Amino acid sequence: MKKGTIVKVSGPLVMAKGMEHANIQDLCYVGDMRLVGEIIEMRHDVASIQVYEETSGVGPGEPVETTGEALSVELGPGIVSQMFDGIQRPLDTFKAQTDSNFLVRGVNIEALDRQNKWAFNATKAVGDMVEPGDIIGTVQETKVIEHRVMIPHGVKGKLTALESGEFSLEDVVAKVETDNGETDVTMLQRWPVRRGRPFKKKLNPDKPMLTGQRVIDTFFPITKGGAAAVPGPFGAGKTVVQHQIAKFSDVDLVVYVGCGERGNEMTDVLNEFPELVDPNTGESLMERTILIANTSNMPVAAREASIYTGITIAEYFRDMGYSVAIMADSTSRWAEALREMSGRLEEMPGDEGYPAYLGSRIAEYYERAGRIVTVGSEEREGSITAIGAVSPPGGDTSEPVTQNTLRVVKIFWALDSSLAQKRHFPSVNWLTSYSLYLDDVGKFMDQELETNWAEMVQHSMNILQEESELQEIVRLVGIESLSEKDRLTMVIAQQLREDYLQQNAFDDVDTFTSRTKQYYMLDLILSFEEEAREAMRLGAYYKEILEGTSDLRDKIARAKFISEDNVEQIRALKDEAKEIIHNIVAEGGMTQNA
Amino acid sequence: MLKEYKTVSEVVGPLMAVEGVEGVKFDELVEVQLQTGEIRHGQVLEVDGDKAMVQIFEGPSGINIKDTKVRFRGKPLSIDVSEDMVGRVFNGLGEPMDDGPDIIPETSLDVNGQAINPIARDYPDEFIQTGISAIDHLNTLVRGQKLPVFSGSGLPHKELAAQIARQASVLNSDEKFAVVFAAMGITFDEAEFFMEDFRKTGAIDRSVMFINLANDPAIERIATPKMALTTAEYLAFEKDMHVLVIMTDMTYYCEALREISAARREVPGRRGYPGYLYTNLSTLYERAGRLVGKKGSVTQIPILSMPEDDITHPIPDLTGYITEGQIILSRDLDKQGLKPPINVLPSLSRLKDKGTGEGKTRKDHAPTMNQLFAAYAKGIEAKELAVVLGESALSDTDKLYVEFTKRFEAEYINQGFYTNRSIEDTLTLGWELLSILPRTELKRISSELIEEFMPEGE
Ligand SMILES: Nc1ncnc2c1ncn2[C@@H]1O[C@H](COP(=O)(O)OP(=O)(O)OP(=O)(O)O)[C@@H](O)[C@H]1O
Ligand SMILES: [Mg+2]
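^ inputs. structure came back:
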């Protein structure tokens, strides 16, 4: 391998001369400690290298060795349930191999275990014609994930050997007779992280991805293949929202990228997920989860790489025909890493010091999400749903990262510090958030639930909007000035906010709400409204209704704590509501007639 | 023999350029010897060919370009540590400044530390009773957490921090406990306040103090918290101690960073602070925690004064994005005479959920906490409404909320700096206040808990 010589070290940026043989994006080993780095710029024979480990103790004169290969991930059985760092080093092996609780430097570890034997089950036969993307066999990787071994890119022809059996990653499981001779196929593939994996075509992502979070599923739904941004100031609840989605969404696989955030949050996931049961499969959540951890105090260059590592892994499973969700917490920290490298390269700074290419990088990332038809003769459908937290300075979303993100995503969950301060969680602001998939999902749900779901949602939204206007009036002239009708609107709006939208992630029951329960809960509140309005039309007074239903409203408020096994109780409450309000009318009617 | 250079070519602010160097490494420790013989310390910020850029901790004053000698030490900035540091006072660079004997080092540690492998972390979930209701019940502190105090000039953060240090230590007296205190740019009076308080309670014998005062070199402050945290990690993870680290005032630390950044002519970020302020702060704050298989823990209480009480200022803002919550002091509450003037609504402890409840504190902890928050928020709104429209515009329920709010502030928050409440006492007081409100308002508490805990005869 060819070597260059370091001439400059400035934090994570190292420059080396004598590198004319190297290519942009080549991975290299930097200095005597052989730290991992990537070439991000070449000028004559001088390469600028971003180094994925701390560079203290590195100096001019030390060697740099390029590998001639771009930063890539290893793909094959053994990825799921793992926690990797930003450049796919498995952190448990890291700890075992270094015998240290800390991330010591210059450690070279293979991403996937070469020793482990996997039970490979051939699904094609010798003589079959295969092309890239075709599945030739499967491995039960975890209890819930069947790893589908695909023909790698660039390989096409007739299968000349294929056999079921126990194999390790580098064993040959198949041979293909191609135009250029026979090629061995193993269960291990590599793919450069900065290049999206190819697919045949994109489809409209119009099927909901259910998250079990009421404010999301009902008001601002996300779809399989959609992309969402979650901006909010610190403590607004971005991480909790993403953890909740990672836990409960009805996808096959979750890739969670902790990008420049807290170490304890990754530990939390690592401790909690194995204990939690996936409501969709009945198995432990860790069986379908992949974690990428580059915490805030880990090297910033690796932070920049971490989201690409994550999305490439997501694409690989998408190509098997799975629905995958990827969360990045937080994309702002990734953008800051970009800014820091750009600054050290002395590039011309754009908005708030971010490089001019910030917008295109963000767009490129979210473009890798989507619902697609895979390559290969089988034309599977797969999807990646991408959710990115954004951490705007001072909570001000006019800043470049939020703005550039909003240009590409179709879902915006605006977290609001004033709601968070009132402990209204999730603090998704119902007036400023939006989902451009609302109509698609509404139609879908109408069919699935055989109801007027879309209408119910629209009506609820109108009430909440009306409430905010009425609140203005109350603030100026007091509640007494409102008509009885408006005061009822205020009551219903409060029910929607407190009894429906608020959802405690830390309550065993409330943490997840199925589609059916969401429908029952919303229907309960809206039918309460309908009955109450009808009662007023028949002459009952607002005050009578309010006083006569205080126990009832208390029960409505507690509907969220009724477990999924007992949702019929919510149905029963609806009948009870009817009866109670009818009685109020009956009695009220008497007072009026008298 | 270390090579000595007399090739200083430039001194700009706290930075010094040395030319013709050989074998210099990034981040290396530097010794600068002035013409007077005085030795100063520095650190390599960048090395470009044969030119090294050095930041001088003690500042540039009196440096003569021609006669200054520079030695590169071939190792990073380090601190000699030993258990004997407990009970001692050091300067901001970790050199003893009391009358005690030299520290005989057990080992010498790189102050930059290393990131903890997330696999090796043990999630912090052990309740620390600080004896302060607004913290224990509403913004619970746990071992291994980083929970800053956001304050403003003139607000009593030092009283609060001292109260925490005093009261949190007594509960677990059978366990090994230490306080590591890092002063950065604060006044002599403020430092003396802590010393005096620690002396009175005997905590001084269990403390390690690193002192950089307002009149000490500003750039030295960049090293001070690293000295403190390296010592804390050593005591926690090598000596099994539960270490509480108090760092005050982070604002001056950040200002020192800004000074370096300006001298390097870096593209400034918001309000002139460098774009890497977030990353830099995280390399300090993330050094809190617990490790699997280790007895000790590092808990951090950084204190920062918000310039102009502005929470969106980059220093509190970026801190809040890294730490696991924040305790916010309010000037309004302070004016009303509340001690401590903690504004609980924007305050937060993110680790409370796993550190409270049955088996840790009590099963009614979280529901009553949620209810108190909701009720207080509602009470404040009602109070504001009353200001605009008069008391008479309030509904009967609203009036009860106003009463609740007044008593909540006067009795629950305003406990004084010397009252030490057990968590049970705090919970009892919470129930008493909630009994002011109609039961139908207590939506966040289950009926069973209300039956069990609500005081009789409301
Ligand atoms: N759905 C929820 N239910 C209950 N509590 C919640 C919920 N969402 C957020 N919280 C509370 O808010 C706190 C902060 O949430 P979170 O850590 O997600 O904020 P964040 O927006 O990610 O902040 P940062 O930007 O600093 O990382 C949590 O620790 C929790 O106490
Ligand atoms: Mg977060």
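Chain A has four domains: 4-70, 118-187, 201-435, 451-587. The first strand of chain A starts at residue 3 and ends at 10.
thumbs up if we can close this ticket
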